[in-house]
TrEMBL record:
<keyword id="KW-0032">Aminotransferase</keyword>
<comment type="pathway">
    <text>Amino-acid degradation; L-alanine degradation via transaminase pathway; pyruvate from L-alanine: step 1/1.</text>
</comment>
<dbReference type="Pfam" id="PF00155">
    <property type="entry name" value="Aminotran_1_2"/>
</dbReference>
<protein>
    <recommendedName>
        <fullName>alanine transaminase</fullName>
        <ecNumber>2.6.1.2</ecNumber>
    </recommendedName>
</protein>
<dbReference type="InterPro" id="IPR015421">
    <property type="entry name" value="PyrdxlP-dep_Trfase_major"/>
</dbReference>
<comment type="subunit">
    <text>Homodimer.</text>
</comment>
<feature type="domain" description="Aminotransferase class I/classII large">
    <location>
        <begin position="141"/>
        <end position="541"/>
    </location>
</feature>
<keyword id="KW-0808">Transferase</keyword>
<dbReference type="InterPro" id="IPR045088">
    <property type="entry name" value="ALAT1/2-like"/>
</dbReference>
<feature type="region of interest" description="Disordered">
    <location>
        <begin position="37"/>
        <end position="58"/>
    </location>
</feature>
<dbReference type="GO" id="GO:0030170">
    <property type="term" value="F:pyridoxal phosphate binding"/>
</dbReference>
<keyword id="KW-0663">Pyridoxal phosphate</keyword>
<comment type="similarity">
    <text>Belongs to the class-I pyridoxal-phosphate-dependent aminotransferase family. Alanine aminotransferase subfamily.</text>
</comment>
<dbReference type="InterPro" id="IPR015422">
    <property type="entry name" value="PyrdxlP-dep_Trfase_small"/>
</dbReference>
<comment type="function">
    <text>Catalyzes the reversible transamination between alanine and 2-oxoglutarate to form pyruvate and glutamate.</text>
</comment>
<dbReference type="InterPro" id="IPR015424">
    <property type="entry name" value="PyrdxlP-dep_Trfase"/>
</dbReference>
<dbReference type="GO" id="GO:0004021">
    <property type="term" value="F:L-alanine:2-oxoglutarate aminotransferase activity"/>
</dbReference>
Amino acid sequence: MYCGQVQPIQFRKCLKAWHWREYEQVKYQVRAAVDGDNSRNCSSPRIDSSPLCSGRKEDAEMSQQHAVNGVLPKGKVLTLETMNPHVKKVEYAVRGPIVQRAVQLEKELREGVKKPFTEVIRANIGDAHAMGQKPITFLRQVLALCAYPPLLEDNKFPEDAKERARRILGACGGQSLGAYSASPGIECIRQDVSRYIEKRDGGIPSNPDNIYLSTGASDAIVTILKLLICGEGHSRTGVMISIPQYPLYSAALAELGAVQINYYLDEDKCWSLDLKELKRAVTEAREHCHPRVLCIINPGNPTGQVQSRECIEEVIRFAKEEKLFLMADEVYQDNVYAEGCKFHSFKKVLFEMGPEYSSTVEMASFHSTSKCYMGECGFRGGYMEVLNMDPDVKTQLTKLVSVRLCPPVPGQALLDMVVNPPRPEEPSYNTFIKERTAVLAALAEKARMTEDMFNTIPGITCNPVQGAMYTFPRVSLPQKAIDKAKEEGCVPDMYYCMRLLEEEGICLVPGSGFGQRDGTYHFRMTILPPAEKLKIVLQKIKDYHLRFTKEFS
């Protein structure tokens, strides 16, 4: 027993889901090797090998039962052996086994089970409202009016909110949010998105026909990947993603059967993107696949870096030279905190580089209502803008989005408030600006607080949180702790984070879920908790880390 809080056998039980997915990954790597097809694993993040632990051998034997005359012993049509093999390769650490255990602990606390803590603090995901951030008044007023139109007669609502609501409802079938919209989204909202982009980018034109509304940015990202991924063997599409990366990308590539091409961000230079590393990654990948896509997250998730204009120019030149489709994930574009840092949209830089680039480089950029100052994750609003897409392919894109009918209409309405906020002459403007400024200022202060605190802890180093909503500190683990983790059958930073959850009630995501260089360990933590609670979280992590290090020194 360690620290008197959890028995080793219970700890192994908590990790069982993690072990199972590791087993499945290894099993399919072995099968690929036997079949002579290693190409789809090129440049994949390396994970420390872990021995089988109790229960895994039995699970493996059960999963490998062979069908007799095409019929499985239990008579099930859908089993682990007969299901889509790509789905079994999908991993999404942000909602992985640690989060599942956090849910279990919350239930146990409600049932009166004694723990060393009184609440579970979920610092694993960028869910602002769940962490206590208050909704922006204007956004919710317009949504309320749209959802229940009789409120339009209520004089408690400002006239600019009513005007927005009437316009949105007028564009909805039957003047109701409950009606389907056009598959690319409500036309007047797409026009507002286009005007928003033009204003953001200093007047560079944006065509509403290039705007597709989506179920958050994630839906749009996966849609574009579906268009791009094709081929078999060495001709299979390769997609370049940063390491560390947001697990949506690796999960989508696994599901779609694409080749993941890793390029590593430079931790020693504040997670900067290096052109030489991009060239290394694409050159090595060409031996296994056909690189066609380059994904960039700016500001970065999980690393919080903000790309300079010079860096973006280099990336665009690289994409043109290598004939790569650019995917610019820009959902944190309002979340920039560090002095000297500024958000530059890829589209703006692309056009300012001149026609040689602006008329040839194919690109899709993405934004969402879930991040920035809004934090409206549950409404699932978002958009993408496509540039220089072949007209015939664009027709196929429109067909593809029509299959899902339309994005959630309440999410579309919310997006319209983000891109068409109150103007200075309108009654809601002062309150809107005050609330927006307060949210972003609080995030900037918490970014500095987090960096400062982590850098006082021996064995933890943290780069400046220049933007986004997360910190990704590096943790030095004693060799005895690494050995203990492997003995328990899991990767070291997973062991570290699970112990933290069990002992302090703090839910973080291990760096191995995002990818990291061999021999390094990290965790991702959101900076979203209220400042006072964040101070408590940081102190608990400090106390835990010192205790953990002492135990294994």
